[in-house]
Amino acid sequence: MTTQTDEAARPSRLLILVPAQVSLMVGLGLLLTRTSVADLVTPAEDRVNRALAAGRTALGDTLTGGLSMLAGTQAIIAVALLCVLALLLLPSGPRWAEALFLGASVALQSAIFVVVTLFVQRDRPDVPHLDAAPPTSSFPSGHVGASTALFGGLAVLALRRLRGPWRYVVVTALVLVPPLVGLSRLYRGMHHPTDVAGGLLNGSLTLLVVGSVLLAGRRSETADDGGRPPSPGASPSLPPDAPAAGLVVVVRHPHACDQPLADRVRAVLESHGHRRQQWIDTTAEGPSGGLAEVCAAHPASGPAADRVDLVVVCGGDGTVRACADVVAGTGIALAVVPCGTGNLLARNLGLPLDPATALAEALDGDCFGIDVGRVSGDGIEPARFTVMAGAGFDAAMVRDASPALKARLGWLAYLLAAVRHLGDPRTRVTLRVDGGPRRRHRARMVVVGNVGTLQGGLELLPGARADSGRVDVVLFDPEGAAGWLAATGHLVSRALRPRSAASRQRTGPAADPAVSGRRTVAGGALTYYSGRHVDIRFATAQPREIDGDTVADGRRLVVETEPGALRVRLPRAPGATARRPEAAAPRRVGGAVPAPAGAPDRPVPSDVLAPLAPRQTQAGA
Asked: DSSP code of 231?
């Protein structure tokens, strides 16, 4: 989850991280030039360089020459300056942080490259060189490092700013430039393979360092809001003679929701007539902030002005899960204010990812019943979840993600943790769905989801819907590099699919083949099941997680669904016409719709979730 930004500490963090990066790069370079290591590595690298030199063609010379020129010093400086100027001269206002991030990344990478070459002296490959060789060490590749800093930095900015399917096309194109530059440098005889790897590492570390200092914790503006924070006062207010609302309980994660955001949330609630607010903070020991005690003190059977009408959750998926565990089945409505690391429930329900905007639109919307999952197992107290529960690779990634990096980089910190577990062994899994036959598999991870879309629009569980009355299961088991490529390609291709087509596929629980029976895709790397009750057993104890919170390792997960048990406030779908008959509709009080305890308002209709699912107005905090 995000923490409050400490502006004063950023320069000191930079001073700590840069020497560490320099030391790492110098150490790797000196290691490669040691006789014992060089005797081991150089023969294999020489074979690669000689093979590429022997296979040169006129077309190859032309293409690699263009790439080499694109990553040359003059081109890098020119492109970087143009991009920085563009960021500063945008009509919507200068983007100082992003401009500084891009310029500082390119400059810092170059400075570190120069320092490393002062300590490391490595000869270039013993093949004909197609470019003039500057008087610097072959390690690391300066062209590759510079292109990583520049084009990788542009990819980061594109990921933060762009929306829609073209976002992934642009980001992919930018990310591919540094590896292509590296191949061109190998082809032209200018570097050993480890020099190219060193350049990629130097550029990537530079982006990580500068990004953690200049971008982490900052709002990711989109074209939808022009970079301006929404004004809570702009939300429609109730007339002065509106009936008084019941009690609103605001559960606030104190680090994810800082004081300025809390003030905005308070203003949005007041503008919608919710003037009776009780705020409680979460703690490590109380992830719901004592919500159960507050609800017990203000029961639904009490006076209308004293009962809890609405619970507003200001935090990430873990905080939402803890609060949903309390209010599911009680009839109390829940409003999600997404300000955590992943915000997966908000993404899947189509809420804007600006916290105050999400709350304002939800209060202007209606209440809908969504499912929750109930999970148990060896060493796990039975608990509800709203997003996903899993074991294996994903749980290890969640467990080992650095809290400091999550605070600075958001969900990207999970990707860094995932790299550490790519080589983890597979395990034997036995799966039983709805009391059917036991199915035996091998898998690196198993995920059970109430919803299916991850960050970046990746549909891990394409058939999962929050109102389907069932949970979906995926067994992830790529074998070797080909398996990983097949699985990644399948997931990315679904994310790149036009949203209109994806929306049409989600028009009902039976619209996707993954929701019934068994379905295997990506050459067997992904296997799907779906049902109301899922019993999973592992041959060995596995890391396990529930909605992004790790629990004790164990050998069993049992998940069952509670259909429509949680009432959630959501924006009305554009163009949706299905409404409750006025005679049967409860009276609206202060923007909330009271309901009898244990009675969800209604399931989310297909024409509500399908158009809403793709809407994302900003990246998570």
From this structure: P
Is the Cα torsion angle 51, 54, 58, 61 positive or negative in sign? Answer: positive
| C-alpha 509 chain-centroid distance | 25
Task: Using alpha carbons, select from 526, 516, 529, 545 the residue that is nearest to residue 431.
Answer: 529
State if pTM tops 0.70: no
Structure tokens belonging to residue 477: 């088991």
Tell the burial category of 179 from Cβ atoms under 10 Å away from its Cβ (0-12, 13-18, 19+): middle
Buried b (16+ CB within 10 A) or exposed e, 413-443: bbebbbeebeeeebbebebbbeeeeeeebeb
Burial of 58 (0-12, 13-18, 19+ CB in 10 A): exposed
Residue type, 227: G
CA-to-CA distance for 415 and 2, rounded, in angstroms? 16
Would you say 247 and 309 are in contact if contact means Cβ atoms under 8 Å apart? yes
Which letter does DSSP use for residue 588 in this model? Answer: P
What's the rounded Cα separation, in Å, for the pair 511 and 493? 19
Question: pLDDT of 257-266, one tens digit each?
Answer: 999 999 999 9
Predicted local confidence at residue 432, as pLDDT: 95
Q: How far apart are CA 333 and CA 367, in angstroms?
A: 7
Lowest mean pLDDT among 62-71, 88-97, 248-257, 462-471: 88-97
- Beta strands (DSSP E) in 444-505 are 445-449, 471-476
- 611: cis peptide before it, omega within 30°? no
| Tokens of residue 53, six digits | 């030199």
In angstroms, what CA-CA distances link 313 with 282, 358, 419, 453, 505? 10, 11, 32, 21, 30
Is the pLDDT at 312 greater than 60? The verdict is yes
Angstrom CA distances, 449 to 121, 170, 459, stand at 53, 30, 11
Angle between helices 412-419 and 393-400 (to 10 degrees): 110
Q: Rounded distance, CA 146 to CA 202, Å?
A: 9
The span from the CA of 579 to the CA of 368, in Å, is 12
Burial of 564 (0-12, 13-18, 19+ CB in 10 A): buried
Decide if 447 contacts 397 (C-beta within 8 A).
no
Distance CA 334, CA 590 (A): 15
315 DSSP β-pair partners: 338
Query: Residues near 465 by Cβ (< 8 Å), separated by ≥ 6?
Result: 451, 452, 506, 509, 609
Distance CA 197, CA 67 (A): 17
Could you tell me which of 463, 465, 460, 512 has the C-alpha nearest to residue 487?
460
